[in-house]
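Hi F.,

I've been meaning to write this up properly since the lab meeting, where we talked about keeping a consistent format for the predictions we share between groups. The idea is simple: the sequence comes first, exactly as it goes in, then the structure tokens exactly as they come out, then a line or two of notes. No screenshots and no reformatting. I'm using this chain as the first example so we have something concrete to point to.
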Amino acid sequence: MSEKIRYTDEPLGELEIVPDFLPRPEDLVFRDEGVKVTIALSKRSVEFFKSEAQKHNTQYQRMIRRLLDAYAEHHSRRSRTARSARTRAKSARAG
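Output, unedited:
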């Protein structure tokens, strides 16, 4: 690939327009089913998330939602691991 590409103004020939087959950008965004809730947060927490969201050019509600999702994911994985360890321990004692 050390050879340089030389562009010219030659005619392209007969062109064919193909239909757009790609999905819309909004169809590519994975979204979990949302549930609307009402929650009272401390003023300090909301101000923190608003400030951080502005710095990172995003929405503060989205940041809070992602934080809660990450927390739930971490602890649900941990509880599954703890459960499976207890199950293995019971099986070892029984067998």
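Notes:
The two ends are 65 Å apart (CA to CA).
The helical segments are 25-28, 43-55, 60-94.

If this format works for you, I'll send the rest the same way.

G.
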